[in-house]
Amino acid sequence: MSDYKRIKTPLTDEVVLDLRVGDRVLITGYLYTARDSAHKRLFELIEKGEPLPIDIKGQIIYYVGPAPAKPGHVIGSAGPTTSYRMDKYTPKLHELGLKGTIGKGQRGPEVREALKKYKAVYFVAVGGAGALLARSIKSVEPVAYEDLGPESIKRLYVEEFPVIVANDAHGGDIFEEEKKKYRIAK
Amino acid sequence: MREIPFEDIVEAVREMAIVSNSILPPEMYDALKKAYEEEESPVGKEVLSQILRNDEIAREEMMPICQDTGIAVLFVEVGEEVRVKGGSLKEALTEGVRRGYIEGYLRKSVVKDPLRRVNTGDNTPAIIHFDIVPGDRLKIRFAPKGGGSENMSVARLVAPADGREGIIDFVVDTVDKAGGNPCPPIVIGVGIGGNFEMSAIIAKKALLRKIGERHPDPYYAEMEEEILRRVNELGIGPMGLGGRITALDVHIETYPCHIASLPVAVNIQCHANRHVEKEL
């Protein structure tokens, strides 16, 4: 397997276009957490034409609802949640400048199209590897919707956070491409 | 009547919540290790190595294997000669879950109402299945169940004429459609028979069986092996990123059923296949 690519947030078009399906990437910089309920609220603001609590331009959203931090830790286990539940909201966020998302599992065609159109990328982190991934998270700040508990929006500072490019800005899809190589069933 | 103090049950459940979420059953860890050795896909191998490392960190630091510490599922066998002293059994089990999730820094993932969706804040209520059995023991099996794999589970009432082959096709198709969403490598619980709700309950119960253990009836043992072989031909691989290892095991549980029916439920379990048991 190829070596890791190291990238920093916020992402530029140039960085995004250099990423290809299957690349192993280490991310350093800020990530914003948001999952089901936070997306719903962000969308209500967009529909009303109101400003969002975060400036998403160039940023990456990590679909995660972390476990609480034990004393002396910055965060508890913090692996990705399943991405398709956010598919409904993702194209609009890319249109507004969001450059990347991190989750697990496949995206729908509307998201794959948006990645090409707005030059963005979908990464997967290893689902169920929350204890390992928490080690790359160095700080956590609350940003919005604290009433949502694990679903609130937080800003994480990560160092060398390990992900794999699942859908790139060139139309590539790791799930379909790799499955074909190993599929025996019709 | 044998009396068990309320607090003993609370403490047992509290500990089970914390231990089950941090320590993977050893046979499950071994199965993942074997999967790592056998996986041919380089991406799949990378995923499995992260999963193994994660399970080691969780065990060493007593922190959750996965941030989704689940809704607590309990299978409780209550001996007919057991009485709880100082409160009700259901309250004791619930209080144990509450304390385990709060004191163990586990995530609270339960909403009070399915549509209004306000978090209960202590991961209660749990899903508790009671069974009354002879004797004076209380046996509790505790399995936190995450949402990602549960969402990919399906129950269907197939035609009795569809038989064995129809069931196998249904299970394989369910796993194929789920792809990487339920965090493969998965374990598949299949409940066959009973009625609508019983098929789902025995599918869940099937997940509590140890990895590598076959159904005692050779007819179903062989069916488990056939489903496992076919699922691993799908190419889904670890986390759906392609590979040979999509499932680590298939467990079937059966129950008698109505002459008109053939209920089948497929309960999918992610690689964080967490469960513990305790007898009081």
From TrEMBL, chain A:
One GO molecular-function entry: hydro-lyase activity
Keyword vocabulary terms for this entry: Lyase
Pfam family name, one: Fumerase_C
Ranges of residues in domain Fe-S hydro-lyase tartrate dehydratase beta-type catalytic: 8-177
Lyase as UniProt keyword: yes
InterPro entries (alphabetical): Fe-S_hydro-lyase_TtdB-typ_cat (IPR004647), Fe-S_hydroAse_TtdB_cat_sf (IPR036660)
Family recorded in the similarity comment: Belongs to the class-I fumarase family.
Protein name stated in the entry: Fe-S-containing hydro-lyase
Organism: candidate division WOR-3 bacterium
UniProtKB/TrEMBL annotation, chain B:
Superkingdom in the source lineage: Bacteria
Family: Belongs to the class-I fumarase family.
Keywords recorded for this protein, A-Z: 4Fe-4S, Iron, Iron-sulfur, Lyase, Metal-binding
EC code: 4.2.1.2
Entry-linked InterPro entries: Class-I_Fumarase/Tartrate_DH, Fe-S_hydro-lyase_TtdA-typ_cat
Protein's recorded name: Fumarate hydratase
Domain Fe-S hydro-lyase tartrate dehydratase alpha-type catalytic: 11-277
Uppermost EC category: lyase
NCBIfam families: PRK06246.1, ttdA_fumA_fumB
Single GO term (MF): fumarate hydratase activity
